[in-house]
Design a protein that fits this description.
With 498 residues, the chain is α/β, with parallel strands linked by helices. The protein is 25% helix and 29% strand. The termini are far apart.
Length: 498
């Protein structure tokens, strides 16, 4: 295969997360976002070190796995879902096989989400247009594009309340010809619409994210310029008039003049209610603010955390470290039985929320510390009996992992939202004296390419520690990555026997 050449082929399998695999004259090609069984046309856009990557141009014929009935009308255009056209049972099989191939182990299966439609409790919609200078759009980015936005009025993975709010907001600002923020020009007013809805309580929090460029609010009609306050008040009244199943806990206006295309706040104004809402999980109550980390699938989170609790086992009289604790959900689930739970999280807002939630739930044996795990664990006076790891997608910093291994606990539970990062970290943990005792998947993200993996790690006896010998003279000192890897393995081997 040659770079720039166009080929056709049948996708034989899909590697995590979205890498369709086909073979052309015995040579492997990766075609992202192609599904098993599809016949596709693609162009080779990368070729190096014998690896070929192709960009999907067209699906020539559907996969035998795909179904037309009940398919989301936005599927294939919206970049949000990859497996929407495949029956849910087949999605589960694909994800389980992907993780099994990565971990090279026996999995205890994959646990499905209790619901696979309307499961998301949070969405960040973007303002834009579907085509250059077209009418205002509000939805998800078009697959493969950082600029084009697709209206998703019939999205299948959110509750209907989301799409009612979405549609009404787009029509309201579209009728008034309010301009969206253009990232290249750094000009415009409308940026994002953040919607959060609790499954258990039905409370809804909505935030309109704009720039401070209020001079752009004049319309092209003959009507006088509408001030920002009046504009937002009318939008709030419109939302409150909608026939929703849930109820608004708060309607917010967030100003964000950052150049980065992220949802963040320079200033937050409450237009109605409050800037938080409540969700319930496994008998506990959690206060959630606009930017609080909380699992996006509430019902799936109960399956995930119940699995983690089973893997951890009896914590009576034990001290548990919950590292990368977010808003402290896992810590609080374990706290009623444990002697003490210590959570560490770098996001200060999440830590404040965790403390408040623990107090609200009457849990007084939890401590939450704000800071980088790498630095904080050196200062902790407690010695853990059990460690729970729930890191961000990129996994655990190698030096932090070294220090975690240094505690020498008998059992760890690692919850991963990106199995490729998990595989990398497991190599270091194995070299440090731990072996995978149990593992399973939990599907928190139906119709998408993502999946959670829960792994129980047990410390091997000293006699079983794998000896890792490193001949430094054989190292190519210019190969920094290789050198660092050997150093990590050597440290783990030395400290794993504790």
């Amino acid at each position: 295969m040659k770079k720039g050449q166009i080929y056709t082929g049948t996708i034989e399998k899909i590697e995590f997360p979205n890498k369709g695999v086909t073979y052309i004259e015995g040579e492997k090609a990766i075609v992202k976002n192609a599904l098993p069984g599809q016949n596709v046309r693609f162009v080779i856009n990368k070729k190096r070190n014998g690896r070929c990557e192709g960009r999907l141009l067209e699906v020539l014929s559907s996969s035998p796995l795909e179904m037309e009935e009940g398919r989301c009308p936005h599927f294939g255009i919206c970049g949000g879902c990859l497996m929407q056209s495949i029956p849910y049972e087949e999605q589960l099989k694909i994800k389980e096989s992907q993780v099994k191939a990565l971990l090279d182990c026996t999995l205890e299966g994959i646990k499905p989400s209790p619901v696979w439609e309307g499961y998301r409790n949070k969405m960040e919609f973007s303002f834009g247009d579907e085509e250059k200078d077209g009418p205002l759009a509000l939805g998800m980015h078009k697959r493969g594009s950082f600029h084009d936005v697709v209206n998703v009025d019939h999205c299948r993975i959110v509750h209907p309340d989301f799409t009612k709010i979405l549609t009404a907001t787009r029509q309201y600002f579209g009728d008034r010809q309010i301009p969206f923020y253009k990232k290249l020009k750094h000009e415009g007013y409308l940026r994002h619409l953040l919607v959060r809805r609790a499954v258990k309580t039905g409370e809804i929090l909505v935030a309109l994210v704009t720039t401070g460029q209020t001079e752009l609010l004049r319309t092209q009609r003959e009507e006088p310029k509408e001030g920002e306050e009046a504009l937002l008040d009318s939008w709030r009244e419109l939302l409150q008039s909608l026939d929703l199943q849930g109820r608004f806990a708060g309607i917010l206006h967030i100003r964000n003049d950052s150049l980065a295309d992220v949802v963040q706040s320079d200033e937050t104004v409450i237009l109605y209610g409050q800037d938080y809402f409540y969700e319930e999980l496994m008998g506990l109550r959690f206060k959630i603010s606009p930017f609080s980390f909380f699992q996006t699938n509430s019902l799936g989170a109960e399956v995930l955390y119940d699995t983690a609790r089973q893997y951890i086992g009896d914590t009576a009289g034990k001290t548990v470290f919950d590292l990368y604790s977010g808003t402290g959900t896992i810590a609080q689930i374990l706290a009623p039985v444990a002697k003490r739970v210590v959570g560490v999280e770098i996001v200060e807002e999440a830590v404040e929320a965790a403390r408040e939630n623990a107090a609200m739930n009457g849990l007084h044996n939890c401590e939450f510390i704000a800071g980088d795990v790498l630095k904080v664990i050196e200062e902790l006076r407690d010695k853990p009996d059990v460690i729970v790891l729930d890191p961000p997608r990129d996994g655990i910093h190698p030096k932090a992992l070294e220090r975690i291994i240094g505690f020498g606990v008998e059992r760890m539970v690692y919850i991963s939202c990106k199995p490729t990062s998990l595989v990398r970290d497991l190599e270091v943990l194995r070299a440090g004296g731990y072996e995978m005792e149990r593992a399973c998947c939990v599907d928190m993200f139906p119709c998408t390419a993502n999946v959670e993996t829960v792994v129980l790690l047990s410390k091997r006896k000293t006699d079983d520690i794998i000896e890792v010998k490193v001949d430094r003279d054989e190292l190519d000192l210019t190969d920094v990555e290789k050198k660092d890897t050997y150093q990590e393995l050597e440290f783990c081997a030395q400290n794993g026997a504790g």
